[in-house]
């Protein structure tokens, strides 16, 4: 018997087969591929789910991690490549990648501090372990790290402080008398600057050093916005480590930065919700949770206005015009990918920001955003 199949049916069958192959390929890729750090929009928080094999109250491991993070911070502070190298096994691919990433971060901090004319006096990380799981000879550890950076401007004794919160999943293994990092993933605040386009301008550095401390605001809504963003800046907070549980965490859906900025303006600044800019238990509008949508809504609605737009060199002087509750939108390839909200200024009046993913508390507004091609929107909010 001869079966005649029309061209239309052949196309349908062919498409179905190709679709099935594609689906299986994606599944296979997602179960075998890895990356050793997460950028701004990744969902590291989903790693923090305890299992039946989770080990609790393991004091030895806690001490090991405390020592490891302290020494790694010291290596970065002192630019000590040899000390940093001792935490990794470069014969293991993922361990080598982790080491190379930390080395790039160490170099970036040095280059950024030279541009800023500052000296770091302290880098210290406090860890909050969420789970420890045995995997063969290794331990897989999920933890929150709160890293405090202290710095002074050259020629000045006044100390400034900032904190950055990171979410880690790391595998460690004991080799003789020491533990080695064989794999590590974490939300990296410097991921956008590892291919650093270094700012080399004596004029910029001189301008920064000539600035003075600023009293930024007495506006009650702006002050309330500061209180809110300091309290709920997640892993960067002093003792909270949490977001506001009244709001959904959107890290798993692309990032929580715009959601946090919207909360700051609504809860702290008392901005009323609208049909376009809204959040409730059923979900949120694009203008509330999407970085690009948030920036566009705030400007187009008249609730905010542009102060400056362009590269760091083009906008760095205008940044001194912003006040707490204003925001910075970071654009890559023509699209805003991150929002930070102004939280204060340091001893030279340099703008500081808070944000989610990566969690930041009073961090200089351009730190971690130095790649060539990144554009900045400096936005004044009308409280």
Structural summary, described in words:
The chain has 383 residues and is α+β, with helices and mostly antiparallel strands. The protein folds into 2 domains: 156 residues, Nuclear Transport Factor 2, Chain: A, CATH 3.10.450; 173 residues. Helix content is 33%, strand content 27%. The chain has 10 helices and 12 strands. The strands form 2 sheets. Strands 1, 2, 3, 4, 7, 8, 9, 10, 11 and 12 form a 10-stranded antiparallel sheet that branches. Strands 5-6 form a two-stranded antiparallel ribbon. Helix 6 crosses helix 7. The radius of gyration is 23 Å and the shape is globular. The relative contact order is 0.13. About 9% of the residues have low confidence.
Note the topology.
Blueprint: H1 7-32, H2 59-78, H3 81-85, H4 93-116, E1 118-135, E2 138-153, E3 160-175, E4 178-186, H5 202-209, H6 220-231, H7 257-268, E5 279-280, E6 283-284, H8 286-289, H9 291-300, E7 304-310, H10 312-315, E8 327-332, E9 335-345, E10 351-355, E11 359-364, E12 375-381
Antiparallel strand pairs: 1-2, 2-3, 3-4, 3-11, 5-6, 7-12, 8-9, 8-12, 9-10, 10-11
Helix pairs in contact: 6-7
Which terms summarize this structure?
383 residues; alpha+beta; Nuclear Transport Factor 2, Chain: A; 2 domains; ten-stranded antiparallel β-sheet; two-stranded antiparallel sheet; 12 strands; globular
């Amino acid at each position: 018997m001869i079966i005649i199949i029309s061209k239309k049916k052949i196309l349908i069958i062919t498409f179905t087969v190709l679709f099935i192959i594609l689906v299986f390929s994606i599944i296979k890729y997602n179960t075998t591929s890895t990356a050793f750090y997460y950028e701004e929009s990744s969902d590291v928080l989903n790693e923090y789910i305890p299992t039946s094999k989770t080990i609790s109250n393991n004091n030895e491991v806690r001490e090991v991690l405390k020592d490891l993070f302290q020494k790694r911070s010291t290596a970065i502070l002192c630019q000590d490549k040899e000390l940093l190298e001792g935490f990794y096994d470069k014969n293991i691919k993922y361990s080598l990648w982790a080491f190379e990433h930390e080395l790039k971060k160490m170099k970036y901090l040095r280059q950024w501090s030279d541009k800023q004319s500052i000296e770091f006096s302290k880098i210290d990380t406090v860890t909050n372990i969420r789970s420890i799981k045995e995997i063969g000879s290794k331990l897989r550890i999920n933890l929150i790290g709160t890293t405090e950076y202290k710095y002074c401007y050259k020629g000045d004794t006044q100390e400034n402080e900032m904190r950055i919160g990171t979410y880690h999943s790391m595998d460690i293994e004991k080799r003789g008398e020491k533990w080695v990092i064989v794999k590590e993933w974490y939300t990296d605040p410097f991921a956008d600057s590892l291919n650093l386009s270094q700012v080399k301008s004596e004029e910029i550095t001189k301008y920064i050093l000539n600035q003075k401390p600023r009293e930024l605001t007495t506006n009650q809504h702006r002050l309330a916005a500061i209180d809110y963003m300091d309290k709920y800046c997640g892993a960067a907070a002093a003792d909270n480590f949490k977001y506001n549980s009244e709001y959904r965490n959107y890290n798993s859906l692309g990032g929580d930065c715009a959601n946090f900025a919207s909360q700051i303006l609504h809860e702290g600044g008392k901005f009323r919700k609208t049909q376009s800019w809204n959040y409730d238990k059923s979900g949120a509008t694009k203008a509330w949770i999407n970085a690009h949508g948030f920036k566009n809504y705030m400007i187009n609605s008249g609730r905010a206005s542009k102060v400056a737009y362009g590269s760091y060199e083009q906008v760095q002087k205008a940044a001194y015009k912003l006040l707490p509750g204003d925001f910075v939108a970071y654009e890559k390839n023509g699209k805003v990918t991150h929002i930070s909200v102004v939280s204060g200024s340091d001893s030279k009046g340099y703008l500081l920001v808070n944000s989610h993913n990566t969690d930041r508390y009073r961090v200089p507004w351009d730190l971690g955003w130095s790649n060539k091609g990144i554009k900045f929107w400096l936005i004044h909010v009308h409280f």
